[in-house]
Please model this.
Amino acid sequence: MSLSLHHITRPSSLKENAPLLIMFHGYGSDENDLFSFAQELPEELFIISVRAPYPMQPYGNAWYAINFDANQNKWNDVEQAIDSRDKISNFIDEACAKYPVNANNVTLLGFSQGTILSYAVALTYPEKVKNIIALSGYVSEDMLNDDLVSKDYPHLDFYCSHGSVDQVIPVDWARKTPEFLNTLNIKNTYSEFPVGHGVAPQNFYELRSWLEKRI
Model:
């Protein structure tokens, strides 16, 4: 069975029922980017790193286009984003059917645009995921459905982090996330680190420790 999104995997030390971690890279990158984390993460995790569906020129991939107008204002292609959100939802089902993993123990790990998509997937399809590691991103409400308050989120748990001097996604956008999640009674942890648009070593150690307690 070939899965709908291109990806690479690191098998688990467990032969069956392994906790599943799926990684989603940022704009203009590919599946190899976050995969460098894999060797530093718990060996019982079955890890999948996914390539975004929209190829860019001359290289890299995107979950959705970011367009610039004449005044250098950025706007997201929300239709593409919602399409990617639903592609990821289907991919989670496919991966759980194909690989020896526990469908009730799925963690999403995103960076930047991959984080924006991870939020959208978790808040739209909460029954498919358990933990979300959201690095250097924010909640884009136009990628969510209108019926958020009617959904059931008690099992979800978010680790959110951001660079305090991020020059790509303003830290103010990320600071709104805990309040947004709190209004939906969703468990969350939020941390900032004195870096730009990236993951500091201490950020990685903190997210690893957070994850180890939840798998």
Q: What stands out?
A: Residues 78-98 form the longest helix (21 residues). The radius of gyration is 16 Å. The chain has a mean pLDDT of 95. The chain is about 30% helix and 25% strand.
